[in-house]
Amino acid sequence: MVKGAGHKSCFLVFTRVLGDIFSYFVNYVNLRNKKMQIRGKTRRFLLPKVRPVKLGGDGRLCRRLAAWRKACKGSIGRSFTVLAGFIPPAKAFFKNPLGHGGKRTGRKVKKLDSYIDIHSHILPEIDDGAENFETAMEMLRTAWNDGIREIILTPHNKPSHHNADPEKIKRLMEILQDKACGEGMDIKFYTGNEMYYGSDMTKKLEEGRALTLAGSAYVLVEFGMGEDIDHIRYGLYEALSHGYRPILAHVERYGRMLTRADRVEDFIRMGCYIQVNAGSIMGTFGFSAKQFTKKLLAQGLVHFVATDAHDMGKRKPALSDCAGYVSRKYGEGYAERLFYENPMRVIRDEYI
Fold this sequence. Notes:
By secondary structure, this protein is α/β, with parallel strands linked by helices. Helix content is about 45%, strand content about 10%. Helix 1 packs antiparallel against helix 2 and helix 2 packs antiparallel against helix 3.
């Protein structure tokens, strides 16, 4: 062995360790600044971006610390190994700007006990959802086996259309409830509408010709797929100005929104809430919708994930696979809020 080679190896490992610690610090500061910026606070300073570094039990830094200890064979190496025990894992440390857990790829997660679906067209013979009670019952069996235990029924209510009145919706809901109980499915139903925005939307709600979600102040609002963003903003503002809490239905379906995730954040600041379809997250409706929903989830800009169930095809009533995906990628706490806690707040008419 060449004289001085051990010292050289020791020095190289040491410099790499310092470099990784610096990268860890810089990424943390940048994420904290981003978090402050999203919450409307002033950024104090921003360090240059560097490559992310994994720490903790599966990180590169711990391996280098082990190499340092082996190279030094002394008290300094042992000190750095001890230091590694005080460095938290990156997966727990790098949280996204809005506070939910960061990526947890490949990790086994606890499955939620049950789910609540706030957007469903399972009520038969009333819109473009279930054609008859036979189809509705088939959809209900799928929902029950998937873990869905509460459903807000949201048939379409569109301007200049022959819409089912609230009495008919309630009557059909009672029949469906009886049929479900007859098969041992203890699913609880609530009435609602998916309101297609029109100039008379708030008037319909105030006169009782249309329904809010579960009798709460929350209203599920949809727009045309090619609608201008300013028109969407105006419609949501109108609902807010009349005392309602609008939930923008399947935001990923509006073509002009796909390149303007920043406008989604503007809607949330107004006081609106965002719902995305489970199928969009899972890629059922194409690459663009999937990428857009993933971007929103990563930034914490989604409040509800629902089925928007219409049939037993692409839009079937299932949430468990999507809930598992969201838990692994964005954190168990965030998944629980999207699939249970926030929907329950709607049912209880509580603020989110």
